Amino acid sequence: MGKRYSIFYLLLNLILIILFGVSLFTDNLTVVNIIIFSIVLIVQVGLVNYFKVLHQDIEKKVVDTEKDLMATEEKIKHERYFDDITELPNERYLLAKIKENLHANSSDKAVLVFEIDRLSSIKSFLGSVYSDCLLRNVAQRLQEQLSDQLIIGKLRDDQFVILIDHYENHDDILNFCSQLQSIMETPFEIQYSSLNNSLNIGISFYPKDAESELDLIKFAQIAAYEARNTHEHILFYEESMSDVRTVKVTLENDLFNALKNNELFLVYQPQVNTMTGEISSMEALVRWQHPKRGLISPGEFIPVAEESGLINPIGKWVLETACYETKKLQDHLGRSVKIAVNLSLCQLFQGDFVQTVKQILEKTGLSPQSLQLELTESMTMNTDHLTPILHDLKSLGVTLAVDDFGTGYSSLSYLRDLPIDCLKIDCSFVKNIRPDTSNEPIVDMIISMAKHLNLKVVAEGVEEITQFNYLMKSKCDFIQGYLFSRPITIEQISNTLCDVQRKTREMIQSLQEQHTHEAVRKSL
């Protein structure tokens, strides 16, 4: 641009000189020459100013571009080394700083990895906006109340890390952990909610446990994981923890393959109508036939599924399979049978869960009225977030039940707020139904509460005739348990349904006769 500008400026000057020279030598400074001379001069001045402004504009744009590039470079650098939620140093930065510190001196050091207890529940109940806000608040409080000399950062899976580069004994570390816990004692006020929190802290030591920054963090993470599972809150790393963690990781990998290899299957436990003896509903229960270990208990693999996120695909498979097999059973029997399917909190708070249920019902051909979705009582603790989802599910035509009722957050107010149809009395209350225990009044209270709210009642875990007798007299609507049938496959349900119903009706008739005799005897 500068070179072209110089050549053009030189040509204009030559034209002016020629015109001026011709005018002098010919002594013919006519009006035409004056006009031409003036025009060329004006053009020259205008172009000079134009190119001057253009040059300045180009220079400004170059400077601005350089500033933008520098700002972009700084932003990329910041994103590379700092967590985008808390603004604390991230894992890449931490590893480099810990490695540098390890090489700087040979003093004993400790790496602490800690997580907010119940953070996953907060994220599930209240959403990621709340959990991210909580993480930011925790980071801010740590920076305000801990020494600037400490290396503090955040890992990718919502865990924090602190390096203590010198300590005298383990008591020093425990005292520091107590200080961390005390920092969490004051509730966090987030969007009009007050959140109380504690920490799960895992600690590894250099050089006792490991000599590399990667292993120190990994072992501290394993200890934090065990602190959460054992509710100890503070644990030093031990080698045995790695063995336990390895088993769980292996189980997680096997569970991922179980879905692909059709190792999961469903069994069903009938629910008996206490008035008629008819099996009008059943509960779907998932089982895992491991190719090497054999049958694995749901109590072992369901927690692993929830921690790993596999609960969502497993839950979807369970729901679809249960609906499909129930529809086949209905077609075989020529009558309606309701199927109850348990939900996890992760499933419920998936953005498309209601649509997923609708699609599965359409795909399998099962009537919405034949599907009952069951929530555990602890899942209903946050009605503000749960109620809209449950109303959307109800609009499909399905029924809703609260499972394990009486074990957690029993409240008449939340039962009124939620659009539920049924309460399931937890088996822990049922199995101890005897005149010499305090469980009978609790069972009576639950049944009375349900009747007051026009809810159906199901009692789980009925194994003895005395339990059945008491629940019948208490007007419990449905009963399930080993007294009638263990959980069996859909083929076994189809083949044994008539026998189970006949046995149940005989039992009911016998108990009703006893009740009549008792009433007559009391009247005499």
Provide the descriptors you would attach to this structure in a database record.
524 residues; alpha/beta; TIM Barrel; 57% helix
Q: Report the sheet-strand fraction.
A: 15-25%
Class derived from helix and strand content: alpha/beta
Largest sheet: 8 strands, mixed, barrel
How many DSSP helices?
18
CATH A-level architecture of the largest domain: Alpha-Beta Barrel
From the alpha-carbon coordinates, what is the Rg to the nearest angstrom?
A: 37 Å
Q: Please name the CATH topology of the largest domain.
A: TIM Barrel
CATH homology-level superfamily of the largest domain: EAL domain
Secondary structure: helix percent: 55-70%
- The shape is elongated
* Termini gap: 120 Å
CATH class label of the largest domain: Alpha Beta
Total beta-strand segments: 16
Q: What count of structural domains? A: 2
Report the mean per-residue pLDDT as an integer.
81
pLDDT below 50 for ≥5 consecutive residues: which ranges?
none
Side by side, the strands of the main sheet go 8-9-11-12-13-14-15-16
